[in-house]
Amino acid sequence: MDWVPKAIIPRKQWPKIEFKDKRGITLKEHEKILTGEGNSEWRAYYNLLWHIGGSQSDVANLRAEDVDWEMRVIGFNRMKTGSVVQLGPRPLFDDAD
């Protein structure tokens, strides 16, 4: 019964994994997505992703508290990196404080 947990091909004989470069979509690709989308709500969502530059999960998890309508700023933490993102005419937090 020891054959079940044994590797068929030893790890060192597997081909090396090569990852592709990560990149965002181009404006042309974005426009192609919008052209193919018939649902206006999804089109609006894709436009929000494009303008904010957030991932689908980052934007899907935006809450009303993340938007300061008075100062016209959107702020959220990126899920993947945990880094803070602030978008708007001026930041909510000043480094001098």
What layout of secondary structure does this protein have?
Blueprint: H1 27-36, H2 40-52, H3 56-60, E1 67-68, E2 73-77, E3 84-87
With helices defined by DSSP (H or I, 4 residues minimum), what is the helix count?
A: 3
- Strand element count: 3
Question: Percent of residues in helical segments?
Answer: 25-40%
Largest sheet: 3 strands, antiparallel
Overall body shape? elongated
Low-confidence stretches: none
Which short descriptors sum up this protein?
97 residues, alpha+beta, 3-stranded antiparallel β-sheet, 3 strands, 29% helix, 11% strand
Please provide a written account of the structure.
This protein has 97 residues and is of the alpha+beta class. It has a domain at 25-87. It is built from three helices and three strands. The protein has helices at 27-36, 40-52, 56-60; strands spanning 67-68, 73-77, 84-87. A three-stranded antiparallel β-sheet has the order 1-2-3, with no helix packed on it. The termini are far apart. The model has no long low-confidence stretch (mean pLDDT 83).
Provide a concise account of the structure shown:
The protein has 97 residues and is of the alpha+beta class. It has helices spanning 27-36, 40-52, 56-60; strands spanning 67-68, 73-77, 84-87. Helices cover 29% and strands 11% of the residues.
